[in-house]
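Good morning,

Both structures are done.
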Amino acid sequence: LLKQGQAVRLVVKIKRPHGFANQHGFHVEKWLFENNVIATGYVKPHPDNHLIRFTPSVRQYALDKIQAYQLQNESWVLALALGFRSGLSSENWDLLQRTGTAHLIAISGLHVGLVAVSAYSVFTILFFLFNVSLHRQNNINQHRSALIMSWFAALGYAWLAGFSVSTVRAMFMFSLVLLSHTLLTHWHVRRLILLGMAGLIIISPLSIFSLGYWLSFSAVSFIAFLVWYLHPLSPHPS
């Protein structure tokens, strides 16, 4: 059984990607173009087909470890933790669609944010205990150190999840915020959003064809607008 991270040499027959010309259906060619798929095809039986790298990836190693425990809700754990959705049955997908929670199993900025917040909380406590043990409350900057460590934790999780477009987008925005904090500069939310949009276009130019790209930045912009609009007015000095 082929596992993620392994490399193979295969004899295949490929063809140029194409889809149906129905303008009201799913645009297959556009989706393939967004995901850098330049050809489709199938594997032909041939004696030269063989593995050239046997070592699986770290994500595959984590999948195998979780599966070894034979958990009762193994398919849900793998889907929520690592975005591995192959184990979900048709009944599971129906449940997700009926409850409107299908987005929870697509590794996104929400998951990266939860990992970052959890790591920040843990490292804040650890650095606090470290300072207390040395009887010096200001031995290290707890906030900044925990923030940096949370960035590494989020990066590791994004790498483990396969660096999908949504995780790259979340990591880039997190990096901008961390850079602003490290340089002790205040960047307006509007500037952060524009820098994030421009940076992601440079990193992944094809992301502008993705609906998630526009929905993510639209949602962040709307939240920023609500925070600004609902922020209590500062009292005027007498």
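Second structure follows.
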Amino acid sequence: QLELLGEALATGLLREHSTAGRYAFSHALVRQTLYDELGLSQRVIAHRNTAAVLERLYGDNSPEHLSELAFHLFESAVSGDPLRSVEMSVRAAELAHRQFGYDESVRHYERALEALEFAGDADPSVQCELILNQAEARWDAGQRDLSHDQFRRAAGIARELDRPELLARAAVGMRSYGDNTRPDAETVRLLEGALESVGDGFPVWRARILSRLTYCAPHTESM
């Protein structure tokens, strides 16, 4: 392998990094061309091996490498451990969100949802929570229409599961703070339905729903 590295360096395909023992392709096009020549099984194995090396070198809690690790685990999830991919994608999404990387957070949640499908017999509650997470990230990223689509989808799942707190979270998401637009009838009905669903069993969610309804007719006049 050292001989192959030497040949690649000599031909200019690779360049040596300033850190000893690290190399990079001389151009992204070279990397992509070589990657495209790999078969599916070869790609999966390469990603799985890369993820294993990253975990061995940096662990699974390194902020600098968490996104990279999550990516390689996702790319190998089809023949690896999909639930592990879900876990790391969620952690990478949460880190990106804390760092105001909302678009990156959206991408990691998308991968988490795809990896969950690979797992088979996915827990619909987990799926619903991931959809809500991504919807909230989309809102912060300025993707308002896509965010609302996902809140509606999550609300449907929450009703089927009879999970009032998830339904409330979806309803509240439809009227996130800073939304000064006039709510449509569907949003008002969703908030009203969520309020009825939570009853007195979820006082925090009840308060949050009521705070949203104060800006929705006809509740504006009565509250």
